[in-house]
Amino acid sequence: MHFDYSQQAFALASTLMPGGVNSPVRAFQSVGGTPLFINHAKGDKVTDIDGNTFIDYVCSWGPGILGHAHPQVIQAVQKACVDGLTFGAPTRKESTLAQLVQQCYPAIEKLRLVNSGTEACMSAIRAARGYTHRDYIIKCIGCYHGHSDGLLVKAGSGLLTQAVADSDGVPSGYTKTTLLAPYNDEKAIQQLFETYPNQIAAVIIEPVAANMGVVPPKPGYLQFLRDITKTYDSILIFDEVITGFRLALGGASEYFGITPDMATFGKIVGGGMPLAAYGGKKEIMDVISPVGSVYQAGTLSGNPIATTAGIETLQILMKDPDIYDRIDYKTAQLAQAYKEKGYTVNRVGSLMSVFFTDQEVVDYASAKTSDTQQFAHYFHIMLDHGIYVAPSQFEAMFISDAHDQKDIEKTIQIIQTYL
Ligand code: PMP
């Protein structure tokens, strides 16, 4: 396998963009080597510009639950393009998508469409603060909620591999109202509420953490968060950017049977296009402008092409909910193969991470015990054998409906033979 064209493309890109990429983890910084420059993708495979084809377990970091270039989604998008790319005025498609989200996720009484998970989380927090007239929020160490200033505190994902706990360029004032607790630590949350009674607007949480590798909530943890936020009249926000429409149609909320006050979505909800959403109880969402006094806007928000891709994707999922059993089963098979090799595996549904540590991984501190050099070695073994997993320890492996049994078995064989 050679990567000559990717290397050339990366050399040029590096002169034009920081690190040659438009999002840090893509740069292969923590595993070394040259990022694959993708030419096209179909089903469960991506093909790079050198003509190498890989079974893809990145799935664009989550959106690709149906696999790449699903014919129904592509056809609808092509048709929508002919009618115009953007109007900056309402379309009926926005309401169609909103209704589908509502049907899947009953906690969403009203929502706003935005363009990225970052925007969704930033805006949800602004709404929560505006509604409660409180300033503080709680986030968990190792959870990532996008790159808005106030949330870049002990965030996960690319920030973990680069050992940048906080980002330069964020004035300390922006993060003063962000309180931190270790994931899965009920006492820490309890203490924060006792220290700041009547001051905490919201707790924002990844209901399954997936940006320090996959870390499931301990039994009872999400219920504890539900109860304590209710007690202190604080808002519980589930960041379902990864888990939404992936663990179940109703995301982690349905999967664990916990109803948050607000939720954020990205990735799958846009069917592979730049679209995200935030929403929740009607009375909270009605603080948003022009009804209320909390400002939030977007030129391309609810864009008709992205909205079309989202609608088609959700409709496919809703017509065939057995997808969730299928992707769960395939992921379980892969998890078993890794476990048999002695690796630590965390899995919830079709989200999974393999850790190179003897410890149980329950939070950021235990995730950090994973040997990232060993991860880099593993990553390249997989790549050399035609398997593309996320180029970072602190990301999830995504399994889609397009991963067929033959490719799952091929992956298992490579795990058994080469790891
Ligand atoms: N929340 C979570 C849980 C995420 O995983 C991500 C991105 N991976 C975001 C928010 C931010 O989304 P985006 O990259 O679309 O801004």
Question: What tags apply to this protein structure?
Answer:
single chain, 419 residues, alpha/beta, Aspartate Aminotransferase, domain 2, seven-stranded mixed beta sheet, four-stranded mixed beta sheet, 15 helices, globular, binds 4'-deoxy-4'-aminopyridoxal-5'-phosphate
What can you see in these coordinates?
This protein has a domain at 71-319: Aspartate Aminotransferase, domain 2, CATH 3.40.640. Helices cover 38% and strands 15% of the residues. The chain has 15 helices and 14 strands. A seven-stranded mixed sheet has the order 4-10-9-8-7-5-6, with helices on both faces. A four-stranded mixed sheet has the order 1-2-3-13. The chain has a three-stranded antiparallel sheet with strand order 11-12-14, covered by helices on one side. Helix 2 runs antiparallel to helix 11 (304-319). The longest helix has 18 residues, at 323-340. Bound molecules: 4'-deoxy-4'-aminopyridoxal-5'-phosphate. The site of 4'-deoxy-4'-aminopyridoxal-5'-phosphate has 16 residues, from helix 4.
Q: What's the SSE blueprint?
A:
Blueprint: H1 4-16, E1 38-42, E2 45-48, E3 53-56, H2 71-82, H3 92-104, E4 110-114, H4 117-132, E5 136-141, H5 158-161, H6 172-175, E6 178-182, H7 186-195, E7 200-205, H8 221-231, E8 235-239, H9 251-256, E9 262-265, E10 276-280, H10 282-285, H11 304-319, H12 323-340, E11 344-348, E12 351-355, H13 364-367, H14 372-384, E13 387-388, E14 397-398, H15 405-418
Helix pairs in contact: 2-11, 3-11, 7-8, 12-15
